[in-house]
Amino acid sequence: MPLPQFITVEGPIGIGKTSLARAINQRYGYHLLQEIVEENPFLGRFYDNIEEWSFQTEMFFLCNRFKQLTDISNLYLKQDQSVVSDYNIFKNTIFAQRTLHKTELDKYLKIYDILTSDMPQATLIIHLNASVETIMNRIAKRGRKIETNIDPTYIRDLRDDYEMFLERYRYLHPEVPILQLDGDELDFVARPEDLEYVFRMIEETMNKEQLEHA
Question: Per the UniProt record, which residue ranges are transmembrane (predicted)?
Answer without folding.
Answer: none
